[in-house]
Amino acid sequence: MGSDTAQPHPKSRGAARRAMRRGPTIDDVAEVAGVSRGTVSRVLNGARYVSPAALKAVERAVRSTGYTVNQSARSLVTKQSNAVAFVLSEPQERLFEDPNFSVLLRCCTQALAEHDISLILMLESSDAERDRVLRYVRGGHVDGVLLISAHSGDPLIADLATGVVPAVACGKPGGPESAVPYVAAEDTEGARQMTRHLVAQGRKRIGMIACTQVVGGRERLQGYRDVLGRKAVKRLVVHTSDYSFAAGAAAMRELLAESPDIDAVFAASDLLAAGALAELRRAGRRVPDDVAVGGFDDSRIARETDPPLTTIRQPLERVAADMVDVLLRLIRREPASSRLLPTELVKRESA
């Protein structure tokens, strides 16, 4: 059993059956493969200098015995957990309300799985949750962090910026926390695209439902102002604390009260736009005849509203893939930098 040849042990079939019954060990894999325990260990840990024949024999033995690597034991040797935290800085209900989060979660999970890395979902919407996340991260349970919807001034971003573990943010973190690399859509240009479209439709009094709790939201507001200039008066802009349906409805109600002659509104997310559509319907305003409505995201919500929503598409699948790519580069201590991805105007019936 001490050689590194690929010839199977004469009793390998019986050994495999015994291993399946009582739970396989690395010694069982070595016996079935007809190689040394050290060779099996090197194969399982991805080491080089293993002959192709021995590699095939070990892989075959792993399948026949049903052996799985003890990740805790491997972590003691490699100092890596093979896990990444997906930290969502929102209340639990927002995970299920906003389809953007589910897309990011699904795509990040798939991208990490290609590297045999597990994703751990963690919520961080209170001081207690933030402390728990930091304890977990500092405890060496994850190799890196994917930050989702982190708000400006969030202490967690500042902590991660010190290099506790590699981290990547979805969207620009901004402020002194900008040391954390990010992957983001071109929010300012996307907002310009939507505002220009509404102007081209002949709309004269274009309002905006803005969310400036995150850098991306502030950039969307800036894009709106870049196009309208002095026409972007204060009474035409309502600020919300989040991107929720309820916030969109409340903001639309305020806009109608402050500017009843409004003939278009740009909402900084599809969920905000869906809330605005509901409030316009309640107020008896026709869309787009009386008021045109534009959103931002091109989530499934944009296709399900009545009428379907004209919006700005941000490529969330690519955002997720690039976030994982940047994070894995950082974990491997390779050069990596922030990335900005282009947006696209998607025209539907609301504007």
UniProtKB/TrEMBL annotation:
HTH cro/C1-type domain span: 25-61
Keywords: DNA-binding, Transcription, Transcription regulation
SMART domains assigned to the protein according to its UniProt record, in alphabetical order: HTH_LACI
Entry GO MF terms: DNA binding
Sequence intervals crossing the membrane: none
The keyword DNA-binding is annotated on this UniProt entry: yes
Region described as Disordered: 1-23
Lineage: superkingdom: Bacteria
Biased composition (Basic residues): 10-21
A matching Pfam family: LacI
Domain named HTH lacI-type: residues: 24-78
Protein name: LacI family DNA-binding transcriptional regulator
